[in-house]
Specification:
With 254 residues, the chain is of the alpha+beta class. It folds into 2 domains: 178 residues, Transcription factor LuxR-like, autoinducer-binding domain (Beta-Lactamase, 2-Layer Sandwich); 55 residues, Arc Repressor Mutant, subunit A, CATH 1.10.10.10. The protein contains 11 helices and 5 strands. A hairpin with a 5-residue loop joins strand 4 and strand 5.
Length: 254
């Protein structure tokens, strides 16, 4: 096992671009019998209502050409049961959309997942392996290898490669994560200004708007404007909710 890990790390050397890391990962995955590869990363996996957030990074290898648009623009990511399952576990797992086969997916799939299920059946990509990676401070990444072919034989082979595929996943994440800049490590869909962040940070410490104004040497009107702008961007009803949401989205981290 150590020899295999060394071999994986030799291919997935730090410092290379994410595209090159994925290309090398796909070479390794194909040696294990996988036909396609999906890697996703998000600093915040769910919104405060529990809806999956479209990932900041979605890298694909040998998937159908419309995959990225469907998952990122058409809402397939939010109703992908494999993603929901990956987020709910820390262990790698083999899955299948074949209702006759007993995999963890069988327990969670329901009619709301039909668009994803139908699409994968049409593409003959109904079996695979997924490895979830729960990162410090709430970030999340996963690597999924997809296989074509008859379900039962493909699943049997997938189970045999589960350990090696898990090693590949962690080697990829270790090499790829340093490539993510500060913007990728915080929620990308809401942009707070420096002053808005400062005001929310002081509000998180319990200061009133007047006290924040004194702390920042700004007028009360200016501070109130910054707080109101931040609340609007966050869709918050009040300052407390704004602080909670900004914290949830990791927008107040240095």
């Amino acid at each position: 096992m150590l020899a295999k890990l060394t071999a994986f790390n030799d291919r997935l050397m730090p410092g290379r671009s994410l595209e090159e890391q994925m290309d090398n990962t796909f070479v390794l995955a194909r040696q294990l019998g996988f036909d396609a590869l999906v890697y996703d990363y998000t600093p915040v996996p769910m919104d405060p209502n529990g809806t999956l957030i479209t990932p900041s990074v979605l890298e694909l290898r040998n998937t159908p050409s419309d995959w990225h648009a469907l998952w990122c623009s058409e809402g397939f990511y939010q109703i992908d049961p494999v993603q929901h399952l990956a987020l709910a576990t820390v262990s790698p797992f083999v899955w299948s959309y074949d209702v006759k086969v007993d995999t963890p997916l069988k327990k969670v799939i329901d009619p709301c997942h039909a668009p994803v299920s139908s699409y994968l059946h049409d593409q003959q990509l109904t079996c695979g392996v997924s490895v979830p990676i729960h990162l410090p401070r709430g970030g999340f990444a996963s690597l999924t290898g997809l296989r074509t072919g008859k379900s039962r034989s493909v699943l049997r082979d997938a189970h045999h490669t589960l350990a090696d595929f898990s090693l590949i996943t962690h080697a990829l994440q270790e090499a790829a994560y340093p490539l993510f800049g500060k913007e990728l490590r915080s929620y990308p869909h809401i942009r707070l200004t420096k002053r808005e962040r400062e005001c929310l940070k002081w509000a998180a410490e319990g200061l009133t708007a007047a006290e924040i104004a004194t702390q920042l040497s700004r007028s009360l009107a200016v501070v109130t404007l910054h707080l109101a702008s931040a609340m609007h961007k966050l869709g918050a009803k009040n300052r407390v909710q704004a602080v909670v949401r900004a914290t949830h989205y990791r927008l107040l981290e240095d």
